[in-house]
Give the backbone structure.
Amino acid sequence: MEQCVGKCLGTYSETTDGLLNETNLKQITGDDTISVTPKYEKTFKTRLFLKLILSGNDKPDWRYTPSMVARIEYFAFLYKFKDNPKGRYERKKNRQLEELFTAGPYKNEIFTLLMKNAQDLFKRRKIVKSKFIQKQFEKYTSEIDCTTEYLGLWRPIDNPRPSEGVIGGAVFRQFCRWCSDNNKKPAKRGDFIKKLQQRYPPRKTKYHNNTVYDICLPVEPEEYEVQLEDEDERIRALEVIKERDELEELRKLVKTQQGEIEKLKRQLLKRPCVKTVSNASPAILPHKI
């Protein structure tokens, strides 16, 4: 970290598809005061103003969070520039433009513009974001955000029955197995459940404090095949949900019948010729001699 102190720009080449260190990246790009301990020296506190550029053939992976999305910009170079282009992703070099920006009078001016005036020019709308760059960045983040990719495999049930549906915890366990099979890093349970609720609203009533979703995962050859280790658990949960709904219907029916019985009782009590045994006098009770 001490190598970043007092620097305006840092470069790192030959990136891998590994996971970026989120803590170090936030320390470098954040505005907070951090502690730096150089080797064999005392610890001191400072603030960094370094812009870090990573370049390579492999796109690095990182945990998809709003703070990380705000810190990262992605510039895709889809073409190679050669003197004699032949391939699909090859373009012809412009030697004059290359010399103008690398060895010409604009070499230092371009760097100064990017480092000092880019933010001001962007605020005054002299520099606008490229639609191509925005599209490539959205494509890149969709690859990072494996939660959105996985939830896109699920489909809502049009006319769900009480026995249909799945518990949120079961969806998360299947998501973890899917990430393991596809060599992806799964999101945290809380972040996953939050996105699941936003995309597929759950049922209003819960089962044993578990949220139930009316969604299903179609199993087709071209799609991901679900391997449920807890299939029996899911079947039992669905059976319990069905029994609970049937019990609720029976309770409503019993409540309705009880209301009708109470109504009949009130009607019988209003008749003057009808007397109950409890109201009769012991002297007139029938008895044998």
About this structure: The chain has two domains: 2-143, 147-241. The first strand starts at residue 9 and ends at 13.
